[in-house]
Specification:
heterodimer, A: 208 residues, mainly alpha, Four Helix Bundle (Hemerythrin (Met), subunit A), 75% helix, elongated, B: 100 residues, 2 domains, 0% strand, flat
Chain lengths: 208, 100
C-alpha cells in the first residue's frame, strides 16, 4: 500500500500527509544517508589535500601498472552501475529472472572491484607501504591518506555487495519489492560516483 | 515513485560510456605532465561533471520532484564550500617547512 493510499484509508490526513518529495520514505532516508556520507568522504579528501599541500616531499609513487589497475577498477565499477540500472528496470517490469541475472552481475562486478582493490593493497604492503610508512622516502602521511580514503570506499563497496546479496535473497522470497532494489541501487550509484573523485585524487594525482 | 519520463536503457548505456570516456580523458591529461595546479583543477572539474551527470541521470534526480534537488544540493554544496577553510593553514605549513 502506498503512502497516499494509507492516508486515504486511515482518514488521518493531517497526521499522514503525503511526502512533499513524492518519493518513498526509504528512498528519502537513503538520500539523507548519502548526503551525510558524501560529507564524510569530502572531509577525508580535504584532509588528504591539506596534508598534501602542507608536505614538501609528497612524491608521485604510482607507476603505470598501478594506474592501469585503477582504470580497470573504474570501468568495472561503472559497468556495475549499468547492470544495477538494468536490475532496477527488470524489477519494475516484474521480470524476476532478468532482475536476478542483473543483480547477480552487479554483485559479481562489485566483488571483482573489491578483489582488484585488495590485490593492489597487498602488493603495496609487500613493497613496504603502510599507514605510517613510505618506502619511497616521501611523506609518511601518504600511506595514512591513501589507505584511509580507499579503505573507506572499499568498506562501502563490500557493504554494498552484502546489502545487494540480502536484497536479492529477500526479493526472490517475496520479502522485498522493487522499491528496496531501487533504494539499494541509489546507494550503489553513490559508491560509484565517489570513486569518480577517489580515482583522480588518490591515483592520477600521484602518478609518476 | 519517480516519473515515467525516464530514458531507456540505451540512453543509460550512452551515459555510462560517456563517463568511461571522461575517465580516459583524465588519464590522458595526467600523462601530459601538466603543472600540478592545472592538473588538479582539470581533474576536479571533470570529476564534478561526472558526479553531476551521475546524480541527475543514474540516481534519477532529474526525474524526481525538484524539491528533492533544492532540499539536498544547496546545503551539501554549502558544507563542501565551508570545508575549504583548511587551505590557508595548509599553505602556512608548506611555507613553514620551506623556512619562509
Amino acid at each position: 500500500m502506498s503512502e497516499s493510499e494509507l492516508t486515504m484509508s486511515t482518514g488521518h490526513e493531517v497526521l499522514m500527509e503525503a511526502s512533499p518529495y513524492r518519493i518513498e520514505k526509504k528512498k528519502l532516508g537513503m538520500w539523507i544517508f548519502i548526503v551525510s556520507d558524501a560529507c564524510t568522504f569530502a572531509t577525508f579528501l580535504f584532509g588528504y589535500g591539506y596534508m598534501r599541500v602542507g608536505s614538501q616531499n609528497w612524491g608521485t609513487p604510482f607507476d603505470f601498472p598501478t594506474i592501469l589497475n585503477g582504470i580497470i577498477m573504474t570501468f568495472v565499477l561503472l559497468s556495475s552501475s549499468l547492470t544495477m540500472l538494468a536490475a532496477v528496470r527488470a524489477t519494475q517490469a516484474g521480470q524476476k529472472p532478468s532482475a536476478n541475472k542483473w543483480l547477480g552481475l552487479t554483485i559479481t562486478l562489485g566483488t571483482v572491484f573489491a578483489i582488484l582493490h585488495l590485490r593492489e593493497w597487498f602488493k603495496m604492503f609487500g613493497e613496504g607501504w603502510g599507514l605510517f610508512s613510505n618506502p619511497t622516502g616521501g611523506a609518511v602521511q601518504f600511506g595514512a591518506c591513501f589507505f584511509s580514503v580507499t579503505g573507506l570506499h572499499l568498506a562501502h563497496v563490500i557493504s554494498g555487495v552484502i546489502a545487494l546479496l540480502i536484497i536479492t535473497r529477500g526479493y526472490n522470497r517475496g520479502r522485498y519489492d522493487t522499491s528496496h532494489v531501487e533504494t539499494a541501487g541509489l546507494y550503489w550509484h553513490f559508491v560509484d560516483l565517489v570513486w569518480m573523485f577517489v580515482f583522480p585524487m588518490m591515483y592520477l594525482m600521484n602518478a609518476r | 515513485m519517480s516519473s515515467n519520463q525516464e530514458p531507456g536503457m540505451g540512453s543509460y548505456v550512452g551515459i555510462v560510456i560517456g563517463l568511461m570516456i571522461i575517465v580516459g580523458i583524465e588519464v590522458l591529461l595526467t600523462y601530459q605532465h601538466l603543472p600540478v595546479r592545472t592538473l588538479l583543477f582539470s581533474l576536479l572539474c571533470l570529476a564534478c561533471f561526472e558526479a553531476f551527470v551521475g546524480i541527475m541521470y543514474l540516481m534519477h534526480v532529474k526525474y524526481e520532484s525538484p524539491l528533492l534537488f533544492w532540499t539536498i544540493f544547496p546545503a551539501t554544496l554549502f558544507v563542501l564550500v565551508l570545508l575549504n577553510y583548511v587551505w590557508p593553514d595548509a599553505y602556512r605549513m608548506a611555507r613553514m617547512s620551506l623556512g619562509k
